[in-house]
């Protein structure tokens, strides 16, 4: 399911809040924390996009591949 704008904004809001906490809850830095959270989110998205390209095609076998063995490896 694709992310909605609301999902992205919520993730950025939570990141900005964490940045605010890490800095000791300073007053007057909301805009700076928001911008920093937006930048971190953009980096996260770029990283995930690159990871997706690097892992295609998937390394997992097709779902129709039969499973062999009885599932008991302790015998």
List the helices and strands and how they pair.
Layout: H1 5-22, H2 30-54
Helix pairs in contact: 1-2
Would you kindly provide a written description of the structure presented here, covering whatever features stand out?
- It holds the Pfam family DUF2934.
- This is DUF2934 domain-containing protein.
- InterPro entries: DUF2934 (IPR021327).
- It comes from Teichococcus wenyumeiae.
- The chain has a domain of 50 residues.
- The chain is 57% helix and 0% strand.
- It has 2 helices and no strands.
- The radius of gyration is 21 Å and the shape is elongated.
- It starts with a helix and ends in a 21-residue tail after the last helix.
Structural class: mainly alpha
Number of helices: 2
Counting DSSP E segments of at least 2 residues, the number of strands comes to 0
* Spatial gap, N to C terminus: 42 Å
Rounded to an integer in angstroms, the radius of gyration calculated over CA atoms is 21 Å
Helix content class: 55-70%
Please indicate the percent range of residues in DSSP E strands (runs of 2 or more).
under 5%
Q: Main sheet?
A: none
Quickly describe the structure.
The protein has helices spanning 5-22, 30-54. It is mainly alpha-helical and 75 residues long.
Features:
2 helices; elongated; 57% helix; DUF2934; 75 residues; DUF2934 domain-containing protein; mainly alpha
